[in-house]
Amino acid sequence: MQVVTTVAELRKQITVWKQQGNKIVLVPTMGNLHAGHLMLMKHAHECGEKIICSIFVNARQFDRDEDLQAYPRTPEQDLAALQEENVDLVFMPEHDEVYAQEHMPQKKIPKYSLNDQLCGQFRPGFFDGIVEVVARLFHIVMPDIAVFGEKDFQQLTIIKRLVEDMGFPISIEQVPTQREDDGLAYSSRNSYLSASERMQAKQIYETLVNVKTQIELGSHPFNDIENHAMKMLMKAGFQPDYVSIRNAKNLTPASYDTDFIIILVAAWLGKARLIDNLLLQKR
Fold it and tell me: How far is CA 80 from CA 59, 134, 153, in A?
């Protein structure tokens, strides 16, 4: 497994691989890898011959309420895990390398109204930062395929639009959310939970399942279902930002006529802001 820190080293190896006819798969991460990330690596092997994992803590997606310095960094453990998953190359650049002027895509990076909704409403600039870094990584690596998890569903939706609007010749693969035995989605931020909070945290997923059941019963307006779920989370000790029922194809508001629904939630528990979602195909 190669570990490189510069775009020049990275592109040199990619050029060789492409000349050999290999399909390049990129899995972008911010490190502190867990079982959910490793499932992305496993899926990547099903998509192409050469797997690149980027580890880059992107300062531009941290808002004023979140401490960039506190984000968990575990490079040694990450590299050991990636070695175990037979990743071919790990790209671990510094900020100035990724944000160098020459690595800015020539086409203007779009700004989406969706950036300021849901999580974007509570984390100003978060998705603007994600859109820019992903556009730069795609421009730098120019993979054939990029792999993302469904847990960050709003991010996934925005990135799909970005690829289409920027004309990147990249196929986006999505991998279902990986969960612990009690339903809690794997997340780097789970490490912020105390032992008692970790026991409480499973109620995020239980809330999603309850909302799904209410939709399937079809007996209440979506606004009432969302409000009830918010109250249940508060009663359980969470500080919810939102519970929202949306169209899974574009994250516009959903109705009972929507065929493909996603239920999204974001809530604080102690120092951890937890997000999760649940898909519901009605027909």
Answer: 24, 25, 28
Query: Which of 34, 37, 43, 139 does the annotation list as catalytic?
Result: 37
Which residues have C-beta within 8 Å of that of residue 8, sequence separation ≥ 6? none
Residue pair 156/173 in contact (Cβ under 8 Å)? The answer is no
Does 220 participate in catalysis according to the annotation?
Answer: no
Amino acid identity of 63? D
Interior/surface letters 110-132, b for 16+ CB within 10 angstroms, e for the rest: eebebbbbbbbeebeebbbbbbb
- For the chain, the 3-state helix, strand and coil shares in percent, each to the nearest 5, are 45, 20, 35
Domains of the chain: 2-175 (3.40.50.620), 188-281 (3.30.1300.10)
Rounded to an integer, what distance in angstroms lies between the CA atom of residue 56 and that of residue 190? 19
Chain segment 102-139, per-residue pLDDT in tens: 999 989 999 999 999 999 999 999 999 999 999 999 99
Predicted local confidence at residue 45, as pLDDT: 98
pLDDT tens-digit profile of 216-254?
A: 999 899 999 999 999 999 999 999 999 999 999 999 999
CA 67 to chain centroid:
19
The pTM assigned to this predicted structure is 0.95
Whether 36 and 100 have beta carbons less than 8 Å apart is answered as no
Closest CA to 43 of 146, 141, 135, 142: 146
pLDDT in tens, 178-204: 999 999 999 999 999 999 999 999 999
